[in-house]
Amino acid sequence: MIDLNDVEKIRQIDTMNSLITTENYDVQFGESLDLGKNFEVANPGRKFHEIIILGTGGGSSVAGGLLRSYLFDELEIPVIVNQGYNVPAFADSDSLIFVVSHSGNTEETLAAYEQAIKKGAFMIAITSGGKLAEMCRNDGIPTLIVPYDIGHPRRDIGYIFIPMLVILSKLGLIQDKEEEIRGLIQLLSTLKKRYGAETPVEQNPAKQIAMDLYGYIPLVYGSLEYYDSVAWRIKNQFGENSKLMAFYNVIPCLHHDEAVGWDMPQELIKNFYLMMLRDDLLDSPKIKKRKDITLDILRTRMGKVREIFAEGENRLCRMFSLVYLGDFITLYAPIYRGVDPTPVDVINLFKKKMAQQ
Ligand SMILES: O=P(O)(O)OC[C@H]1O[C@H](O)[C@H](O)[C@@H](O)[C@@H]1O
Question: How far apart are alpha carbons 200 and 148 in whole angstroms?
Fold first, then answer.
């Protein structure tokens, strides 16, 4: 196992600097705010039936999910995250469609884009370039171009999420969020000191959890209304960053189905490492009670259980405080095993095989 206090070794294993990029989210989120603010939108005040986000993967679709959760009690129209090749039948000229592909080359998103164009939807693209940027240029679709980095959209979550938020406020669909975003940037710069590579294991909860879960299957339980997509993000990050299959579910829903599976044989359930996402401010009394009961039951059944708590002055901060901790945990987990967190070999294999005739 790698000594997570050995910063030089950590940097050697993390050959594409995913930790450094994550440590610099405060800068990324700041730039993203400016990108959003400088983007001109047409027809502010126009009414839409719904918002559809076309995009897939740990960056683009998760950003859509986080947006949906964050705006749950503010937006008066639904947000639909659409990850596949097709767009739903109800999409039409009254739909606001964000086409989001960081690379601009993801085949599902490009196929869905072509359908959306035919339906005459009001579209805005967010991409660093690729085929999507080219198609949008030809079709006259307003496009917000974000920095390219190295082609791992999951570490560009700020560039995808923040501009969508700013654009929604420019369109008059939500209140202005600049103050909340600035609060988040401040929080990220505080938290990076706690979770960053330079902070030793003894003072670094992200490193501690990454080491603690070694040998277990991660299971992330979030909750409605704000922590479903956060749990989804962390589960995805375990896959892409940690090279670990992980699972997630959402309270209270899981109490009506998955929970029955907790009666599985002890030798199976003991392989899980439960991370329970908690928020002392945003979790309602009912949700808090359900989480307490869940922990009471699972403490003696699962291999280990760990509660992680949201923090921060507003909802955006609180949600992203857990996204941020999750990003660090899922980066340290592979490094602890001597594995480089950035390459995604299986995804590349899929892309190659799908391109073959
Ligand atoms: O945002 P896009 O460039 O369309 O990428 C979509 C997805 O592609 C790949 O699968 C990446 O590994 C994911 O992290 C990414 O989210």
Answer: 31
